[in-house]
Amino acid sequence: MIDVLGFLITLTTYIGIYLVLSLTLTLEVSSGITNFGKVAFYGLGAYTGALIGTYLPLAITGSRASPFDVNGIQLLYTISKSNPVLDLSVFLLSLAAGFAVSALFGLLLTYPIHRVGSALVGFTLLSTGEVLRLFYLNTEPLGESKGFMGIPNPFAWLPQARGAEALYLIIVWCFVGLTYFIVSRIMNSPLGRILKGMRDDELVALYAGWPTPLIKSKVLALTSGLTGVAGVLWAYYFTSINPNMFTPSLTFNIWAMVILGGIDSIVGGVLGTVLLASVDYAARFVIPFIGTTLVTPDYLRWIIVGLVMLVVLLKKPEGLAPRRGGVSKL
Amino acid sequence: MITQDLISFFLFSLLYLTVTIPLVLAYRVTKVINFTVANYITYGAYTAVLLDYYMRSSFGHNSLLLTVLSSFAVTGLIAVLSNLAVFKPLAEMRVKGDVLMIASMGLWIVLKYVLYIVSDIASSAWRTNLVSYSQIHYDDISLLTVRAGLVGVQQSLVVFPLLALASMLILYLVLNATRVGRAVLAVADNSVLASLSGIAVGRVVSLTWFLTAGLTSLAGVMWTTYSGAITPEVGDSLILQVFTIAFIGGLSSLTRTAAGALLISGVENFGTDLLSTYLGLPTSIKPMLTFTVLLATLIVSPPLGVAGGVPYRFTRGARR
């Protein structure tokens, strides 16, 4: 018997987290920032959240256990079961810290990239993600290749597990709503038109008197911060993270979603995300039942992601739901 | 320790040169920031791997010359096909450089996982592990080293200079001594002017794709004599260094690119060693050093004019 409700809850949580990533990417693309390093900020948020979520409860309760061995993980579980106040406040603190750390990182990164063209920006952000991943992989206090395993669920103290899942889903979707509000307000405001002008011709925008690098740095800080929060949400949802989750492939997945729906169209981004994330999740769900085959299904999945990008760019560059007249409504 | 560093400095400088010089030339002609160079390296290495397994099991010998020719042909063809299928139609749609770059990203994923599938199928058909293949020894190189009296020298020490030199020589001769090479240079300088003076720009661009991708694949062949475990991630693991070097050269100057190759190779080999000896830092710091050089390049001498870029400073710009 397949648990339909459980499947739906997991699927919608999954889509929600991806929506935050694609909405912020839409804002970045529409302001001319080719962000190939979504995963850098996402991973940074996730690791910040995991760091606070595991070390802090152990430190507060005065335990000397390491969050990486069985005792530590067991202790974290017990704490989250018995102490709702601590559990929730650690979660809220992680959200704030995830935003702050990622936003600051995005702000700092604009200094080296503010003068160069979009290709160089894209490559620099891409390698930032890879360098960060290698950093997680080789740093002992971050769990090296195993990563963090005992991140406490913020609602673990609820008696029914289903209630905890549903509450978490509501939190994720509240955040999706907030992100949607911020992104659509910015893109449909006078600032959004400046951003669009900046994307189309940065030199013209600069000579029209707009401090384009400053605007860009603010946009990147905001979107990175939101991406960081998505990372925290992912870490607390999955309760374990490792460096292999944060490979550049994830960035391409989000790019494929945004391209499929229509670059710089909010509705398109949402549509593309829902489509591709559902297919992606269904594939993850189905693949283990297929067993070993000659061709690993995972490889086919990635080939499809790449082909979606290419085919849409070649055949329907405006995407499934293009942006109309600079104003887009859902 | 120092001799080991010197040797790897030497080898990696040659490897980076073999990849970056064609990359810069390709950018100047095609105007695509092409991430599929990672695939070219990997496909070069894997043509060598598949050929090596086939030759060893059928004839018991393997030849570097044959490997180089087939890697060149396979990779060159892939590049020409990807130009015809993706980049040429996009260029005809007059899209921005960003879109070409995003398309090259899509192509990168597709080609990468196609190779994974090919090596999986070959592995199960031949009942061997091709996804992590051991170092390859070439019989003609062994023969050459014995003839030259260099018994016991690692093959990489011979193959790296040989192929790097051959690559530079081919590039130099094609560009400077042939008519079509002059046409390539003309398109690189100004494609509109070139087409007005009667050069078939489309054909020259196709030829450039073939030539540069083929030359890049030599780096993959070089890698097969150096690495102990050849995997389909070879190209991806080199992409940070390769593009950092290309950006040091501003994606235009070949001399600055060559200097960049030496710099990155030096920083990686001597820098990592010095830091781990004197400061006790782990050797995993290597990619971070390269990344630092990348950021420093972007701050100190940003390659302006490459796919956009504005002459602007935070301190002296317009403020509202």
In words, what does this structure look like?
The complex is a heterodimer of chains A (330) and B (320). With 330 residues, chain A is an all-alpha fold. Chain A has one domain (4-247). Helix content of chain A is 74%, strand content 0%. Chain A has twelve helices and no strands. In chain A, helix 1 runs antiparallel to helix 9 and helix 1 packs across helix 11. The longest helix of chain A has 30 residues, at 84-113. The model of chain A is unreliable at 326-330 (pLDDT under 50). Chain B is mainly alpha-helical. Chain B has helices at 2-30, 37-58, 64-92, 97-126, 139-147, 155-177, 179-189, 191-196, 201-226, 234-248, 254-278, 286-300. In chain B, helix 10 (234-248) crosses helix 11 and helix 11 (254-278) crosses helix 12 (286-300). Residues 313-320 of chain B have low confidence and may be disordered. Chains A and B meet through helix 4, helix 5, helix 8, helix 9 and helix 10 of A and helix 3, helix 4, helix 10 and helix 12 of B.
